[in-house]
Design brief:
Structural class of chain B: alpha/beta
Strand order of the largest sheet of chain A: 1-10-7-4-2-3
Shape of chain A: globular
Low-confidence stretches of chain A: none
Number of helices of chain B: 13
Number of strands of chain B: 8
Pfam family, one (chain A): Fer4_8
InterPro entries (chain B): Cys_rich_dom
Distance between the termini of chain B: 32 Å
Organism (chain B): Streptomyces composti
Oligomer: heterotrimer
Number of helices of chain A: 23
Largest sheet of chain A: 6 strands, parallel
Strand order of the largest sheet of chain B: 2-1-3-4
Number of strands of chain A: 12
Chains: A alpha/beta (492), B alpha/beta (251), C alpha/beta (222)
Mean pLDDT of chain B: 97
Mean pLDDT of chain A: 94
Low-confidence stretches of chain B: none
Protein name (chain A): Iron-sulfur cluster-binding protein
Structural class of chain A: alpha/beta
Radius of gyration of chain A: 26 Å
Protein name (chain B): (Fe-S)-binding protein
Order of helices and strands of chain B: EHHEHHEHHEHEHHEHHEHEH
């Protein structure tokens, strides 16, 4: 089973190891730079990108504003079409529902479509504890599962692995899970894809239960949509007799028509394609075509808490395209694992501390895992202002204050680790609202400038370990201005 | 027009040459520029580190000091973005916290009158050829807040292209962050340093002698990395290039 | 309290601070985006479909009503197919010139049986030029979803120009959400190895699209 994220160190410590891992850096740089240029091209092809982006944002905002109404409508539509709707307030409840549904079929194994929601709740581990084996069928998820690894990217969970590493994992592990890798497997991507095809086919053909997430749920019609590339999604959605979809409540869109926006923006943002190879849409069950039983598990697990935050709630617009990961310079160097969550990168840095709260060391450090360069906001197809939310969450960490956790109002205390910083910020504010104090400090710095060391002690080493300090000038600008009357008396 | 120089606390303390260059440049272009002595800090570091409430008095102080001027010019993309993009947001947040309109009303006047230097030159003064002379090979790094928050676009490049003697070379991956990011540089120093090292490598690959940008915070990070790894390059503020003339060339 | 009530209650409380908003859905979303990208003649739209299909590695063939049976036969022959699965409502004349063994799509078929079939021939519901997409909706001439998934070779017949639309918005207008829909853009592919696209994973690795003129374009397949 794949590893978990429990007990992760804070982001800076986790990132330190990745920064110095040359293979990882190379893999990530290659992959993210490849997709970056392609995305730009795919987006440039459509003249109305800005309008599509705005429409996507407004559709999601409208749904969130009336989420109760749309969830009830969705439930009615899905039920009318022959599906069964379940509600799960948290991960534990969702896992319990899914395990029960699988057991009721009498089956002991399930095939899975790649799904962020089921990763988030740790479904595979929960099923395993109930004696049910879950097979991941997306190529990258398979690589992660066989490698007993953790996902490091939303779209391409094995992005941290290069083709050679993937070949080694397949050769070593496939036999343990089913059909072994072909003899003499090379690291050519086509051969690796073929090996996955052969390995998984026997599982698809005998599977009786499929588990999926969904990219969109249409309240008006009860239609669910899964966007994918490989065909593993189609296998899991159509061959089994029972289909169980676990979907976050924020995936709802009001109407059929709304898909015209997201089916244009999602593929171009994620895989940089005009359209992804396969998109499946289904509404309840269909006589003699596909699963006879369809269960929809609507998942909260922190989403309503996020909805309660007026700045942070925009994170719920996310359509999981991963464009923000692919342009993020921090993600590129720190790698996905450093984010300690199934949601890495910029979107993870604002989602995880909201879905899970800011109590743990890793979650309290995530809002700082950004230089606030804004590249993520620029590419986001639903215009989530990630830097704005990051700064807002920093405020929550250092100032504390009221937040909603599991539906209840709690008052957070300021985070302990920030006491010295808080004092420094207060002192700076005091000095900086008093021009005289600033001037005194500047003069002191100038007078003692020859004593300035090349490197700094204590926390200052974080700067001077890799960068020289700027020289302190003989006088601050304001003294020059006053001395020369703005340069008019400049002594040559 | 009453024009104030908002130099920023970092430039005032550590980069007075940039301030002198702005004064020299604007004076040469016929602008009578003032330096309000009570100016301190826009509050950006506080705000971006999560201390919005500590930033509020600094923003109010800024509004008080600069409220009388028709144009406020700053040679810093990030401090310019703080005023233009984040002061309105601070006002909105205060309102949302039930503290009324007073912060929003106090800050509103300075927001539209604040210009980053290249905006002031190109949009307000309408010049791209400022009569500068700088006989060096230069590459330009667009800093993130100038690029994405203020939308400076090609203004800095147009100004540089008009400088006599200057050879402008494209920086590969120019729009990627240098890794400074304010307190990010120390809170996540490993990632920050790695980003800085990559930026310096890109700059070196151009064969330029000078990397220029319109924000000294980023330049301190890039320049500090350059001098630590021992490249022959220098990091120079755009204003110092534009202020340089045949008669008084910059060093 | 049920989890349903708990979640709906949390949603309502979470939104308690938000000012009332009675904007009807129809007005809440600006729809200033384009219905299609660029102006094209009917012929140019079909041409764009062919280009975009080919760009994502579908093999595109063109013929007219009289040549269709010959084209289908030739494609099956070239593939070396010995069996082909056929949806129950497919126009029989399309397969009139091939003697490849036909397997009719039936409810009782197991996935294992389909796995032993070489090819599948279907019609489609609509094709989208801008994205190079064909959409199947489970009509009698397209069959159950699994028949176009398990065999490794899919021949899809698109009646042009009648079944071709320019854009995604236009395609959605023509489709019925109650039907199970499969949007197909090229053969199956993956970007999971180094974010580079490789064709051919679980779905049919060869997708051949026959653009046929001179056939009525009824999408109900009956």
């Amino acid at each position: 089973m794949s590893g978990t994220f429990i007990g992760m160190p804070a982001f800076p410590q986790a990132a330190r190891a990745s920064v110095h891992d040359a293979t990882l850096r190379g893999n990530l740089r290659h992959a993210t730079h490849t997709i970056r240029g392609k995305r730009e091209q795919a987006v440039a092809e459509v003249a109305d990108w800005a309008e599509l982006r705005e429409a996507g944002k407004r559709i999601k905002d409208h749904v969130l504003r009336h989420l109760d109404r749309y969830l009830v409508q969705l439930e009615e539509s899905v039920t009318a079409a022959g599906g069964v709707v379940h509600w799960a307030a948290d991960a534990e409840e969702a896992n319990r529902i899914v395990a029960r549904l699988v057991k009721e079929t009498g089956e002991r194994e399930v095939v899975k479509v790649k799904s962020m929601a089921t990763q988030e709740i740790g479904l595979n581990e929960a099923l395993q504890a109930e004696g049910i084996r879950a097979y991941e069928t997306d190529l990258a998820e398979l690589i992660v599962q066989l490698g007993r690894d953790r996902p490091s990217h939303i779209l391409v969970p094995a992005i941290h692995r290069n083709r050679g590493e993937i070949r080694d994992i397949f050769t070593r592990e496939m036999g343990e899970w089913g059909r072994p890798a072909p003899e003499g497997l090379t690291d050519s991507p086509a051969e690796l894809a073929e090996a996955a095809r052969l390995h998984l086919r026997e599982k698809f053909l005998r599977a009786k239960v499929g588990i999926s997430g969904a990219n969109f749920m249409v309240a008006e019609t009860g239609t669910l949509v899964v966007v994918e590339s490989e065909g593993n999604g189609r296998m899991c959605l159509t061959l089994p007799e029972t289909l169980i979809s676990v979907v976050g409540i924020e995936k709802t869109v009001p109407s059929w028509r709304d898909l015209e926006v997201f089916l244009q923006t999602l593929p171009r943002s994620s895989t940089a394609e005009r359209m992804n190879p396969y998109t499946s849409m289904w509404t309840g069950t269909r006589d003699e075509d596909g699963p006879r039983a369809f269960h929809l598990v609507l998942l909260d697990n922190g989403r309503t808490d996020t909805l309660a935050d007026e700045v942070g709630r925009q994170a719920l617009r996310c359509i999981r395209c991963s464009a923000c990961l692919n342009v993020c310079p921090v993600y590129e160097r720190a790698g996905g694992h450093a984010y300690g969550s199934v949601y890495p990168g910029p979107i993870g840095a604002i989602l995880s501390p909201q879905l899970r709260g800011t109590r743990s060391e890793i979650d309290a450090s995530l809002p700082y895992a950004s230089s606030l360069c804004g590249a993520c906001y620029e590419v986001c197809p639903v215009a989530i202002d990630i830097p704005e939310v990051l700064v807002h969450l920093r405020e929550r960490v250092v100032e504390g204050g009221p937040v909603i956790r599991e539906g209840n109002k709690v008052v957070l205390r300021p985070a302990k680790g920030h006491a010295a910083e808080r004092a420094a910020m207060r002192a700076a504010r005091w000095a900086l609202t008093r021009p005289g104090a600033l001037r005194t400090a500047q003069r002191l710095a100038s007078r003692t400038r020859r004593l300035r060391p090349r490197t700094l002690p204590g926390p200052g080493r974080a700067w001077s370990g890799t960068r020289d300090l700027p020289p302190v000038p003989p006088e601050p600008f304001r003294d020059w201005w006053q001395r020369t009357r703005g340069g008019k008396d400049e002594a040559k | 027009m009453r024009v104030a120089l908002f130099l920023t606390c970092v430039n005032d303390t550590l980069c007075p040459d940039t301030g002198r260059a702005v004064v020299k440049l604007l004076t040469r272009l016929g602008v009578d520029v003032d330096f309000p002595m009570d100016q301190t800090c826009c509050g950006q570091a506080h705000y971006n580190t999560g201390y919005r409430h500590e930033a509020e008095p600094l923003a109010e102080h800024f509004a008080k000091v600069f409220g009388e001027y028709e144009a406020i010019v700053t040679p810093s993309g990030s401090c310019g973005a703080m005023v233009r993009e984040l002061y309105p947001r601070m006002g909105e947040r205060a309102r949302a916290e039930g503290r009324g309109d007073s912060l929003a009303v106090t800050l509103a006047p300075v927001v539209p009158r604040t210009y980053e230097l290249t905006e002031f030159l190109v949009d307000v003064l309408g010049v791209t050829d400022v009569g500068a002379y700088y006989p060096h090979k230069v590459t330009y790094h667009p800093t993130c807040h100038g690029l994405r928050s203020l939308g400076l676009g090609d203004r800095p490049r147009r100004l540089l292209q008009a400088v006599a003697g200057l050879e402008l070379v494209e920086l590969p991956g120019a729009e990627e962050c240098c890794g400074f990011g304010g307190t990010f540089a120390v809170k996540n120093s490993d990632v920050s340093a790695a980003m800085g090292a990559d930026k310096v490598r890109s700059a070196e690959s151009t064969g330029a002698q000078v990397l220029c940008a319109a924000d000294n915070s980023c330049l301190m990070h890039i320049g500090g990395t350059m001098s630590r790894v021992g490249t022959g390059m220098r990091a120079v503020h755009l204003a110092e290039i534009l202020a340089s003339t045949r008669e008084e060339p910059a060093a | 309290m049920s989890s349903r009530e708990r979640i709906l209650g949390r949603v309502r409380r979470a939104l308690a601070d938000v000012p009332g908003d009675d904007t009807p859905y129809e007005q809440a979303v600006p729809r200033g985006y384009l219905r299609e990208h660029g102006e094209r003649s009917t012929e140019e739209t079909v041409e764009l479909l062919a280009e975009n299909l080919a760009d994502y590695r579908a093999l595109v063939h063109r013929t007219d009503a009289g040549g269709l049976a010959g084209t289908v036969a030739a494609l099956l022959h070239r593939r070396g197919a010995t069996s082909v699965v056929v949806p129950p409502g497919l126009d029989e004349s399309w397969l009139a010139e091939t003697d490849v063994r036909r397997v009719v799509d039936r409810a009782e078929q197991t996935p294992g049986e389909l796995d032993r079939v070489d090819s599948v021939v279907t019609a489609c519901a609509v094709a989208v030029a801008e994205t190079g997409t064909i959409v199947l909706d489970g009509s009698p001439d397209q069959g159950r979803r699994r028949i176009t998934l398990i065999p490794d070779h899919h021949i899809c017949v698109v009646r042009v120009p009648g079944q071709v639309v320019s854009s995604v918005p236009q395609a959605l207008e023509r489709l019925d959400p109650v039907r199970p829909l499969t949007w197909i853009s090229g053969p199956s592919a993956t970007s999971d190895i180094e974010l580079d696209r490789v064709e051919g994973v679980h779905g049919p690795r060869t997708l051949e699209v026959v653009l046929v003129t001179g056939l009525p374009s009824g999408t109900d397949g009956s």
